[in-house]
Design a protein that fits this description.
single chain, 137 residues, alpha+beta, Beta-Lactamase, six-stranded mixed sheet, 3 helices, 6 strands, 20% helix
Length: 137
């Protein structure tokens, strides 16, 4: 089986590689989410959690429900494309989080089965620190 270069794989060993991957996701300064293939949030790193109200429940919710209604179709489409094996870059916003650029990518196990969707988001600001529509990645 050929592996697409833009598809992450969870190794099937004693769990050390998976633990390392999770540690890296937790430590990333950008917003990182892992989604089930149906779009439910299963993990959000610290930077991602700081972008929500402390009382806002995130885990278990559909990813697109955490965004304004105007962005939901773009987010759903990105999830479908990632679940089909594509890595896509999208924009969402503006919202209370400003304009966001997101990379949405499939994560497969060692057999090539889709197990998660990875979302990496960054806020795009102009040089003055004001939220602006992002330049493409």
């Amino acid at each position: 089986m050929l592996m697409r270069p833009d598809t992450a794989r969870f190794p099937q060993n004693d769990g050390q590689d998976a633990a390392l991957a999770l540690a890296l996701l937790k430590a990333m300064p950008g917003r990182v989410c892992l989604l089930d293939p149906d779009g439910r949030v299963t993990f959000v790193n610290g930077a991602g959690l700081r972008s929500f109200e402390p009382s806002e429940a995130v885990q278990g919710r559909f990813w697109w429900d955490l965004w304004p209604a105007a962005d939901r179709e773009v987010l759903r489409t990105a999830l479908v494309e990632a679940a089909a094996g594509e890595t896509v870059t999208i924009e969402a916003g503006p919202s209370d989080r400003g304009w966001q650029q997101m990379v949405v990518a499939p994560v497969e196990d060692a057999r090539g089965t889709l197990v998660k969707i990875l979302v990496i988001a960054r806020e795009a600001c102009d040089p003055d620190g004001l939220t602006a529509r992002p330049e493409p990645l």
